[in-house]
Amino acid sequence: MPATMPAADSNSLDAGRVTRIRRNLLRWYDAHQRDLPWRKKPQPYTTWISEIMLQQTQVATVLPYYRRFLKAFPTVQALAGAPIGDVLQHWAGLGYYSRARNLHRAAQVVCQAFDGRFPDSYEGLCGLPGIGDYTAGAIASICFGERQPAVDGNVLRVVARLTNCDEPINTPAGKALIRAATVEMLPHKRVGDFNQAVMELGARVCRPGSAADCDGCPVRNQCAALASNRVEALPVKNKKAAPRAQDWVVVALQHQDAILLRRRPTNGLWGGLWELPTAMVQVGRVDQVAAAFMRELCEGRLSSAPRAFGTVMHQLTHRRITFHGFHLRTRQRADLGGTAETLWVTLHDARAMGISTAMQKVLDLLETAAGGAK
Ligand code: SF4
What we know:
Layout: H1 15-32, H2 44-54, H3 59-72, H4 76-81, H5 84-91, H6 97-113, H7 122-126, H8 133-144, H9 153-162, H10 172-185, H11 191-204, H12 224-227, E1 244-255, E2 258-263, E3 274-275, E4 278-280, H13 286-298, E5 307-315, E6 319-329, E7 342-345, H14 347-352, H15 357-368
Parallel strand pairs: 1-6
Antiparallel strand pairs: 1-2, 1-4, 2-3, 2-7, 5-6
Bound molecules: iron/sulfur cluster (SF4).
Iron/sulfur cluster binds next to helix 9 and helix 12.
């Protein structure tokens, strides 16, 4: 163990250790930070969009979405005035679509209640739809220099290791401990850079499990987990419940070269996005539900027998959905009845609509299946 390394039980953050953590992290950040578009001249609007997109999503995935989104909605006014369908279309593929709806609602609040200017404090930002502790802390520290932490998954891991925290980080008690320790570490100047430095360290150096690069870490001499040989054991997490398995029937109803899409209800999973009509199998077998659903969709208008075109699985945080695809042709275009908005489009145009990643997978399957609707 290097002479400067803290003792194995040194979990507390004394003033000297805090000073070294701040200094070493900021130096490292100055030398190694990635050149990311939202870091150039940070503004509340661009910081907000990037932070919402980055939640549970890698930087490399976010970059093209961020550029397209900012091109389509360059200001908060442009976002507030856009139809929600356009916003969802630019979000499609990023998942967690309630975030896009909240972005849209919050932009409208900023324009209507704050004359187009973001509240310039953590407290004020927390009052906007979809902005919680993390996002408010990030915007307030990066754009307004307010001394607030921004504790995301990377920060939870880094700080749990720096402080040898044994409390599970996916519990309220664990989160509160990490937040308090992060607040202690925050410098009085360059607080936004410090928050970004911790996040960046978590993403690139202090990676989960054995992927941590402690040899290249700027705070290795201040790290209690390294000193006590507990890097791989931290952070501690309580086991999550296994995702629920679900079966969904999905129907590709085709007339000539067009397929039918319908818009999902605004609330709930994939709210407001377009889909091939789906039905969750709650009671009975897949084939029974599929037969009943297809009868309901297009009774009397069929010109082909239904054909199963395969299955595709999509994993969400709390459920694992298996889509069972059925294709059938209809003699005429007709709406589905009910209140759902519907549209007949080519398969090519369907891909350009606001549809979920799960539905993109279903369309891939449909396209590659023998005799698929092209
Ligand atoms: S020394 Fe290792 S475990 Fe500690 S903060 Fe650095 S990378 Fe993470």
